[in-house]
Design goal:
Layout (H helix, E strand, L loop, with lengths): L3 E5 L3 E2 L15 E4 L3 E2 H4 L3 E9 L8 E9 L14 E4 L2 H4 L3 E7 L7 E8 H4 L7 E8 L13 E11 L1
Antiparallel strand pairs: 1-11, 2-11, 3-7, 3-10, 4-10, 5-9, 5-11, 6-8, 6-10
Length: about 160
């Protein structure tokens, strides 16, 4: 009789440029990541997490991490493009995204906040879209830390094996 086991792929960096990302009092302006293409991997889930570092003298606020999906592998919701780029949303567009994490920000300069482990499948009701990515916005009152290495987003594919 065959045995089915859960298997984890390698942790992979997601392309998401957060260095010096400007604050957004409305939490509608932020940065989207390059999309992850699940049409070849066919993962049942992806576990995501990472870190975000505030800039100097934040005033508080939050950091939000959202999942963005493509319903057909080409078109993304809320005007996203599937590329590492700035993205400005409207409130009706933002509700099309799936919230992964909200981090309360204190007033400590250059504070690194880790987030995750978040399930992409759970965010989308149990199924991973053909393509997906992240959207990050914050209301810390200052730009995020300017050093790229002080920010990170990674994902790990979860598949099944049969032995």
């Amino acid at each position: 009789m065959a045995t089915v086991n859960q298997a984890y792929g390698s942790s992979t960096a997601l392309t998401l440029t957060l260095a010096s990302l400007a604050t957004s009092s409305t939490l509608l302006v932020g940065r989207e990541s390059t999309a992850v293409d699940n049409t070849a991997t066919l993962a049942l889930d992806y576990l995501v997490g990472g870190k975000v570092t505030t800039g100097t003298s934040p005033t508080g606020g939050v950091i939000e991490i959202w999942a963005v999906g493509s319903y057909d592998g080409t078109t993304y919701v809320a005007g996203a493009t599937g590329s590492d780029a700035g993205l400005t949303l409207t409130q009706p567009e933002k509700v099309q995204l799936r919230l992964l994490a909200v981090i309360d920000v204190d007033t400590t300069s250059n504070h690194t906040y880790e987030w995750g482990v978040c399930s992409i499948a759970a965010a989308f009701g149990g199924m991973v879209p053909k393509k997906w990515g992240l959207f990050v916005t914050h209301s810390s009152g200052v730009n995020l830390n300017s050093t790229g290495g002080n920010h990170e987003a990674k994902y790990t594919a979860v598949t099944l094996t049969v032995a």
